[in-house]
Amino acid sequence: MKKNTFEDLIMWQKAHQFVLLVYSITMSFPKEETYGLTSQFRRAATSIAANIAEGYKKKGLKDKVRFFNISHGSLEECRYYIILSKDLGYINDTEKLNNLINETGKLINAYSKSVLNSNS
């Protein structure tokens, strides 16, 4: 019997890919950003996937969607860090980051709507 976990969710899989990409990219950020932008970017990226995972097992629909909303907030925070990183010259090509973040955002929105509509 297959056990359903948050890892089965495509939105979590995309969010996890985003986290791994952020960690990879921020490895080349300047040393002086270790406790600044690098740390903030990584924490916000991790928060996207972590809140999806936490929300997945919540019983109440409103509580579940609240975690997905937090996840989406962290996603928007990362969207800003992509812009900032590019403007500071730390990254040049943002296409893969932006594609993953856009796809993840759409999936979070769709899943949240689906959860809310399941109560109707």
UniProtKB/TrEMBL annotation:
Transmembrane segments: none annotated. Coiled coil: none annotated. InterPro entries: 23S_rRNA-intervening_sequence, 23S_rRNA_IVS_sf. Pfam families: 23S_rRNA_IVP (PF05635). SUPFAM superfamilies: IVS-encoded protein-like. NCBIfam families: four helix bundle protein. This is Four helix bundle protein.
